[in-house]
Structures are given as C-alpha cells and as structure tokens.
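Technical annex B. To support the medicinal chemistry partners, we prepared a structural model of the target in complex with 2-amino-3-ketobutyric acid, based solely on the information shown next.
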Amino acid sequence: MSNKILVIGACGQVGTELVENLQRIHGPSNVIASDIRKPLQEVFSNGPFEQLDVLNKENISAIFIKYKPSIVYHLAALLSATAEAKPKLGWKLNMDGTFNIFDACLEYDVKKIFWPSSIAVFGPTTPPILTPQSTILEPNTVYGITKLAGERYCEYYNARYGLDVRSIRYPGLIGWKSLPGGGTTDYAVDIFHQALKRGSYECFLNKNTTLPMMYMEDAVRATLEITDSPSDKIKIRSSYNISGVSFNPDELAEAIKVHIPKFSITYNPDFRQKIADSWPQSIDDSRARTDWGWQENFNKERLVKTMLDNLTDSSLSRN
Ligand code: AKB
C-alpha cells in the first residue's frame, strides 16, 4: 500500500498546521498538500502541492491516480459565517465536495479518511451545558446542516462500504501560525492580533457568549490521534465530541489583560451573534476520552500566554 497522505483544504487554518505536522512525522515528500487556492505559506515548499477543486471530479481523479494516497484528510469547507452569507455555495461546497471526495476514496481504494465535523451540528434545542455525544441535533445554520448531513454520511459509508472514517466535532480553534477564515469563533484569534497591534479590540459577539474552544496544537494532535488509533477503538463512526476549554469574550479579555494591562475591549455584535447563540457552551467528550484516550493540554491561561508569546515573536500579527 502507498504511504502517501493527501490533505485537501491544506491552506486553511487547520490544514496549514496539519501539513506541517504530517511532514515532520512522515517526511515532506509523503504529504501532498492540496487546495483550490495557491499556498502563501512556506511550509508547503518542502513537499508536493496540487491545486484541487473538490467540485471538479476530473481534477480529483487525476490527483488520486497520480499519488494513490492511503489516507485522505478532507478539510475543505465553507465555515459558519461565510456559509450564512452564501448559503447555496455553502451547501454545494460542503455537501457535493464531500460526496466527491468520499466517492473518490471508494473508487481509488483509499483505506482511511479524516473528515472534520463541528460544534455547529448542535442547535438551539440542544442541551447547551456539557452537551452529550448523542443528543438533539437541530442546527439552524447552513454550515451546521451540512456538517450534520456529513456526519450521517460518514457513518453510512463506514457501515455500507467499510470506509474507515474518522471524525471529530471541532470547537472554535485558536492558533498563531494560521488565520481562520469565515467562522463565528474567529474573534478568539483576531483579539490577540489586535491586542498586540492596537491594544484594543471591537468584538462581534457580546461579552457573555460562552463557546467551546481549543488551542490548535491540541486540535492537530486530536486529529492525528483519532486517525492513527486502531480501528477497533473507534466506536463512533459519525463524529466524536471533543472538548478543550470554554470561555466568553469578557473572560478572554481579562486573561489577555494579565499580560497587557492596558488592553480594552468593546462590543458590537453582528449577525454572528445569532449563530453563536445557537451553539453549546461546553461539551461532554467522555466518549473520546474512553474510546481513544483524548486529553487536552491547554487551558485558557496557557493558551493566552502561548498565543501572545508567539505572536509577539513572529511577524504574523495581523494589521
Ligand atoms: C466556525 O466558527 O464556523 C468554526 C466552527 C466552530 O466550526 N470555527
């Protein structure tokens, strides 16, 4: 079997850091980064990069035939805020893109696929505190609806075709090496850039909006750990709840003020408030802990210090 790994959506927030980690573990030449956009990051210059449009079946076939990947990470999707602004495109990219990649995995005999779900599968009727693994799933955003349908599709493809699907429900992800694009939780990355640049931040969510979040290093490790776990440990073939840390913008601002005492935050909620209000505040991830040993490493204080230290040292701070 080939030892090639294909990452689709490699230029996104998770993809950028996932590729870097996979290259370190498996060697750069074995990790094929792909995205519809050309990469800005130097990280891909070590290994192969292919332009790939998940809505173009010929393009997909050509890349699967060329590299014969044994594992595919399919990360390409429109996130919650962008999908609300462009619902038809959100549906098309997130659903047809997933169908195309899953079908290519069957056609070209890919054994294992990682597909990310999100806390967006939950909705206003879901119990919001320590949201259980199995619970009411009535999302009211197009992104959440596509993630829920995708989860059902994951389970179906595993049961019907034996495709070894691995999936987790990402919370909001916070890292300094890459920027998020189009999500409701993006404030929790932007706030660090603005705190360092301007000493102030205007938040598009209100101060009490508590959401589940995770430091990117934990998220990438969770992605690698679930994908590398023996198949018999993966009992849930839709998607696993995983939890890192929960906080609201006010609590995050207070934690930033420990390092930047003059930092100030103001609030000007926009359409993303409604999306955030439909999501849980905290997640029960006991199944991930029991089944494949999930354990987060970053609490709020460590996350804040790590973000500020690294952004201070790097040229990545946003203007
Ligand atoms: C978003 O805000 O849309 C994403 C997510 C929680 O899936 N970060």
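Notes passed to the chemistry partners:
The longest helix spans residues 87-107.
The pocket of 2-amino-3-ketobutyric acid is lined by residues 79-80, 118-120, 143, 170, 172, 183-185 (CB under 6 Å).
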